[in-house]
Structures are given as C-alpha cells and as structure tokens.
Amino acid sequence: MNILDLDSSLTAQPAIAERLLDGRATRLDLLALGPQLRLWSTERTYRRFEQQLKKRPPRPAHRPELFFVGSGDYHHLTPALLSDLPEPVSLIHFDNHPDWVRLAPKRHCGSWVNRALEMPDIARIITLGPCSDDLENPQIKGGNLGALQRGHLQLFPWQHAPTQVWGRIGDGPGHEQHENLLHWRNLVDEDWPAFIDALIDDLPTGAVWITIDKDVLASEDAATNWDQGGMRLTHLLHAIRALAARTRVLGIDVCGEFAKAPHRNWLKRWEAKSDQPPPQRWSEQDLLRNAHTNEALITLFEELFP
C-alpha cells in the first residue's frame, strides 16, 4: 500500500501509521511538491510528480496496487497512476463531482477525467455518486457531455434533479433525455446490489481500476475539503467487494482527506475560497471519521487482496 504524503493528512491516522511502522505500507515523501500540485498543476510540476512516483515499490504481481493520496484537491494525479497498466480497464469513479470540466487547466482536480478519457487503456469511465451543482447547466460550466453522448463516459448521480441542456445528447445507461432535460437514474432510488451486479455485467473489460474521492460519502462517513455527497460507506464497501469478486481489480486510489491549504498562489487561494465550503465547518471529532473510514477501507482491502 502506497501512502502519497502530499499534505500530512494521512500519516498520523492510526491504521496507516501502524502499517507504515510494520512495513505493510510505504510512504512516498511528496510534501515539497504538495502545494504546487494542489488543486491544479503546471505540466512541469506534474512531470516531477511522475518521476517521484517511480520511486514506489514495484507493482504487485497478483494483487492490486493501492494508493492513499490525501485531499481530493489531488484527484488529478490519478492519470499518472494509470500510466503503465498491463491491460485495458474500466475506470470505476466514485465522486461527488464529475471532474469533467473542459475549460479548466489541463492538470486540474476538476478536469482530470478528460485526461483519463484520452488514455488508450481506459475503455470506459463510470462515475458514481455526484450530487453537486456541477450537473446544473453543465454546458455553460464546460462539462464534457460529448463523452457522455458517445458512451465513453457513463454517469450515475446519487441524487440530482433533471439537468437542462441544449441540443441532442441522447439517452444513456444513467440518463434519459426528454426535450431539453436529462433525467438522471438516481442511485438513491436503486436496489444497490442489483445495480452493481448489472453494472459489472455491462463492463467492456474484465479488469477495472477503482478511484475514490471520499466526498462522494455522506457527512456521517467523511469530512473533506469539498461538499459531501449522499452515498454511505456501506454502499461503497459493497461495491468494492462485488467488483473484487467478479473482475480483476488492478488498482485502487483513495483521496478525500481534509487538509488545510495555505495557498501561496493567489489564483489557488481565490479558487479554493470560491469553490470550497469554509474549513471551519468541521470539528476535530468530525475529522476522526476520515480515519475510521480509511480503516474500514484498508481492512476490506487486506481481506480481499491478501
């Protein structure tokens, strides 16, 4: 298990500290790069991260490569983790945001899905769980509806009202278009085990990569730098267990810790202030939920992938 230490949010958590101590986890010291990578990154800094990533232990031969990454502000690092896959995969993406904005910088936590869609070994991206207002007026906000129209991207909100669009997007597994509205197949209304089974039946590949931003979870289960979704931890654990039972899981990355960000870059300060809820909404007790959720995830990973 790889701990990418970008913001000091992970190493003090008991389940992670214990595994770092006994060698079941490896820490990659990225604290010097963390502020430059957070929210968005220049291409030069991103390449420096890719070089540092090569210092991790070799990819395990018979079990998934596991990463804990820190704040969801670093979700745009996921494509670097996918760069040397041994075979094509379906990318199963748990998130409260679609991360599909085409107008953002190339290496941005809100646009990384577009970079992943360009990778030859990514057969399909399936985004599960958004509740955020990113799905309101997505064409104005730069959402990649073209990928949704082509079927290369599938999106299933946890709960969201119909989305207004212009032009013909068409129907998909997660939505139906009626005139100028996309009516979503809201997961809150689904039989979750049956939905996950049907999703797996429809995958175009036998292998998957799972990427998790814990802001997909309700506030009862996580406290992040972003607004929280509605999925419960039990749903997430069930989905991982089902995917592990019926597919080849090549890797899992987890982000969505809470970490304060004293941005030196004024643009990042402005963006964080305008896009993210105020950090003082969380108490110390709230933040303990992140450690408990990570412990549940790690315990499951160790059970499924001994």
Layout of strands and helices, then pairs:
Elements: E1 2-5, H1 14-22, E2 26-29, H2 34-37, E3 40-41, H3 43-53, E4 65-71, H4 78-81, E5 89-94, E6 107-108, H5 112-117, E7 122-128, H6 138-141, H7 145-150, E8 153-156, E9 163-164, E10 175-178, E11 181-184, H8 192-201, E12 207-213, H9 233-246, E13 248-257, H10 266-275, H11 284-304
Helix pairs in contact: 8-9, 9-11
Brief digest:
The protein has helices at 14-22, 34-37, 43-53, 78-81, 112-117, 138-141, 145-150, 192-201, 233-246, 266-275, 284-304; strands at 2-5, 26-29, 40-41, 65-71, 89-94, 107-108, 122-128, 153-156, 163-164, 175-178, 181-184, 207-213, 248-257.
Protein model, in words:
The chain has 306 residues and is an alpha/beta fold. The chain has a single domain (2-304), classed as Ureohydrolase domain (Arginase, Chain A, 3-Layer(aba) Sandwich), CATH 3.40.800.10. The protein is built from 11 helices and 13 strands. The chain has helices spanning 14-22, 34-37, 43-53, 78-81, 112-117, 138-141, 145-150, 192-201, 233-246, 266-275, 284-304, and strands at 2-5, 26-29, 40-41, 65-71, 89-94, 107-108, 122-128, 153-156, 163-164, 175-178, 181-184, 207-213, 248-257. It has an 8-stranded parallel sheet with strand order 2-1-4-13-12-5-7-8. Strands 9-11-10 form a 3-stranded antiparallel sheet, with no helix packed on it. Strands 3-6 form a two-stranded antiparallel ribbon. The protein starts with a strand and ends with a helix. InterPro entries: Ureohydrolase_dom_sf. This is Arginase.
